[in-house]
Amino acid sequence: MGSLQPCSMEVMRDLARRLEAAGHGARTSLITEAATHYGVSQQTLYRKLSEVGWTSGRKARADKGTTSMSESALVAIAGMQKVAVRDNGKETLHTPLAVSLADTSGIEVPVSAPQVNRLLRARRLDVKSQQAERPVTELRAPYPNHTHEVDPSLCLIYYMKGHQYLMEERKFYKNKLENFARIKLKVWRYTGYEKASGSIGVRYYEAAGENQRNLFEFLAWMWSKKPEISWWGVPKVLLWDKGSANSAGAIQNFLNALEVQAITHEAGNARAKGGVENANNLVETQFESRLRFQPVDSVEDLNAAATLWQEAYNANSLPRLDTRIRREGIAPVARYALWQKIRADQLRELPDIELCRSYLLGKEDSRKVSRNMAITFRHPQADATRTYDVDSLPGVVAGCWVTVRPLVFGNLAIQITVPRYDGEPLHYRLEPQREYDEFGQLATAPIIGERYAAKAHTDIERAARAIDEATWGTANREEAKKAKDRGDTPFATTTPINSLSHLADIPRTAWMPRTGTAIEMVHQLVEEQPLTVVEACKSLVSRGVPSDGLYPRIAGRYPDGVPEADLDALAAELLGTNATPLRAVAGG
User: Contacts for 566-575 with beta carbons within 8 Å, 24 or more apart?
Assistant: First the structure.
């Protein structure tokens, strides 16, 4: 039986990789076997695995329901919110109420409303969608040229009037920095390190400071095939610090075009690229120390000597020096012997240098996805604009904008980028694989009258179909629309939503009776004001009474005005429909 020691992180990483590759069913047996082998509990093993960044289905049980909510419950809530959206787009049913209604309707929602919102957004079920590196202590490269490390640094050597000088501490530090400023052109050392084999590359440049041009020249030199150096090729990953030249847009465009993933370490964490840090030390102690005894007169001569030295150092062929790399698990071996293990499919050749320079000036562009789910783009290597099919790519919908970058390797390949729901970008590599007939029409398009090939559903469309099926009992968009237009009750045929009747079942809380204070009010008598004779005559005429002789007749009988309550009887008498005589009113 083995023992699980605190230093066994590599053992845990290996186990994590095997667990990740295994199916869910096989993971349980792997965990059981490993726990038995190392003599620890499964809980301890899971904790150790979490320390190397691996989590499994057990993680879901510890985070209190983030993934324990069923898909059907999420879809039901999404459906409630969707049918409550007004025609003007306003949301009227927010998640807290939707969760409450779901609970009263027998739909289990074991998470909070904010978590429901996160889950809805993650699955494109939210209303808005429907409407529209940590530093590491150990690094491993799986094969040669997978990872390169680069570090530019100021060299202590400088040249002036054809002679080599050394920046001595007593002349250039502390209170004598003005001497440093007098040197207009300083010598910069650019060191490269191949992670898998430990091979070292070094090149010197004379410049006032670190700049993009020298960085590009060094990368192009290190990655190009040349007779004087035995290792070469473009990596997949580049590690470096956050220098201004490294993060400049031109260099990033060049790296993006080569599909090189540039990873920078945080300030103060140089050990993240400790290989090149050690390589710098080797260059200083094993090569630059030789220059004191046999100076060279120019940077050109310095580079010629550095080329000879690094080739011999990497091959372990320096007289009476053992420059083999020493690592646990393998016998001491020449660096080039390890680099020779590279396969042809892993050795990526740098394209023509002038073509590479053109990508320094390139910039990312943006394109709008057309209704037929395609974008057009002219690749720098193409003679005309090409069409790229983006159909069925998750996160890409008609009418959205995507970022486009040309790539060097491949058949006019491009990379498109779209933002993901959680803020992280989604990257896709595409090539213009469309074929056209003699009339310039897409050869793979369906022929009219023979067949019809509908576009694949996007993420949002798939989510919409699920919502419609849960809400109206059908995933057919037209049938769901008809049900809505008819005024059918949502969820009536699936999971009825108890939105009102449950209110009667809620127990009424018995509160302590409170004593109030009566408000004393004085009753006011409102005296009705009679109508004037003119107002009364107008009202009588509107009732059909003839106006001839009406005014003097009414004025004689109601000299102080006509009570509004008498108008109906007065109109009836004047029209002869009521035998009741006019009531005489005594004059004042």
Answer: 567/531, 567/536, 567/539, 567/540, 567/543, 568/543, 570/536, 570/540, 571/540, 571/543, 571/544, 571/545, 574/540, 574/545, 574/546, 574/550, 575/543, 575/544, 575/545
Q: Which strand (E) or helix (H) includes residue 129?
A: helix 127-130
Which amino acid does the sequence have at 381? Q
For 150-204, write each residue's pLDDT tens digit.
998 888 777 766 777 776 555 545 444 455 455 556 788 999 999 999 999 999 9
Burial code (b: 16+ CB inside 10 Å, e: under 16) for 215-239 equals bbebbebbbbeeeebebbbbbbbbb
Q: Cβ distance 107 to 495 under 8 Å?
A: yes
Closest CA to 149 of 206, 219, 204, 221: 219
Asked if 76 and 472 touch (Cβ cutoff 8 Å), the reply is no
Here the tokens at position 270 are 């140089």
Tell me the per-residue pLDDT of 224-234, one tens digit each, with 9 for 90 and over.
999 999 999 99
CB 19 within 8 A of CB 31: yes
| pLDDT the model gives residue 65 | 41
The domains of the chain are located at 9-62, 147-342, 363-430, 522-588
Half-sphere exposure of 45 (CA within 13 A, CB side): 22
Helices (H), 188-342: 212-223, 249-257, 274-282, 299-315, 335-339
Residues in the chain: 588
* 208 and 184 Cβ atoms separated by less than 8 Å: yes
Structure tokens at 73: 């419950």
Run of H or E including 466 = helix 459-472
Structure tokens given for 331 = 């016998």
CATH topology of domain 147-342: Nucleotidyltransferase; domain 5 (3.30.420)
